[in-house]
Design goal:
The chain is mainly beta. About 0% of the residues lie in helices and about 50% in strands.
Length: about 110
């Protein structure tokens, strides 16, 4: 059974940073493409970043430079470092592997 457990969300002020983690199990993590999505209130799910097994990385263009995805295959964990967070980054963030998605972690950016 595929299991994805996100953590690291919270409330921060604009300009601050958060690091999200997603621990995966139930599939061969080192060969999997891992994806971070987010969904803001009242908006559609959108892709944030992908990291492939060969190390290739994709970012939503508007987020490149502020967000960094990484993975630790020894820990079956994918990370999303988010810097200079802005109110428009407020959303529930999910990690995913193919059609499987975790329960999400809430990120709120406000004063």
């Amino acid at each position: 059974e595929v299991r994805l457990v996100e953590s690291g969300g919270g409330w921060v002020q604009p300009g601050e940073s958060l690091r999200l983690s997603c621990v995966a199990s139930g599939f061969p993590f080192s060969t999997a493409t891992m994806t971070w999505y987010r969904q803001a209130p009242g908006k559609e799910l959108e892709g944030v970043s992908d990291i492939y097994s060969d190390g290739r990385i994709y970012y939503k263009p508007s987020l490149k430079g502020r967000f960094t995805i990484s993975r630790d295959n020894a820990k079956n964990t994918v990370y999303l470092q988010m810097n200079n967070l802005q109110p428009e980054d407020t959303a529930t963030y999910y990690c995913a592997q193919n059609e499987h998605r975790g329960q999400g972690t809430q990120v709120t950016v406000s004063y």
